[in-house]
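Blinded run. Sample ID left blank on purpose so nobody reads anything into the name before looking at the predicted structure. Input follows.
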Amino acid sequence: MSEPAVVVAGLVMRYGDTTAVDDLSLTVERGTVTAVLGPNGAGKTTTLETCEGYRAPQQGSVRVLGLDPRRQSSELLPRIGVMLQEGGAWSGVRAPEMLRHIAALHAHPVDPAVLEERLGLGDCGRTPYRRLSGGQKQRLGLAMALVGRPEVVFVDEPTAGLDPAVRRTVWELLAELRNDGVTVVLTTHYMDEAERLADKIHIIDRGRLIASGTPIELTRGGTTSTIRLVVTKPFPDGAPESLKTALGRDIEVVLLDELSLIVTGPADASTLAKVSRWCEENGVLPESLTLGTRSLEDVFLELTGRELQP
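Blinded prediction complete.
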């Protein structure tokens, strides 16, 4: 079995009195999409920059494709691609020129025209980089990271500022890379993006790894579930309060609109039966009554106590 694409072992990184990364260990298997999630200031960017060779570990070690990103950078750099969240291109350069320049630095690059068409860079025209929109800069940054045919690509917020259609194109492109055996390591503030793309997710907070697993593993189980009740005619007055009283104090009931509500609370089988009984006793005819599972966002909030925000 081949060694992982990325191995971070006991990594510690400090800025003055602040510990940005605190004894962090994680692995990224080859040919997978791995998402690294965490609140702002959790240590995500510092960890990825260390993997990319921009920073030297203060304690611990990092290996990418079995190589030290700092001491063996000349061997590693031709084999990885890096998409920065901002920057990476000269202020006055035009997008096609920059992409062709990066392609010329690689031995066997992808045809720049293919990436230009796929990522819609034609609409950049002759506009210099400094005047491109945030979404155009994102698309160019991704193209620059992929043009060298990397074995591992690090992408930081790949769809920030993109419209829905282009966002889906980027998702398809990243999935194709994985299918071709490329390892993708990404950070994102979009939970749906992580759930859709990632084979494995690492959640870090205050520089420490607090959870790892597939999206299914992370959202399975837990202490809460959701029940969505949709009815055929508007709820009677005071329905949320009445239902909450029937279910108990550990249950939250939120009215979504006049025909639907959400029940959140302990995940036991009796809750669903109690909701059904309440409907019968109050003359409420359900159209649908569905039991849901925790979302990745629910898990993130439960673990960190904070929302994932850009």
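Unblinding after everyone has recorded impressions. The chain has two domains: 6-219, 224-292.
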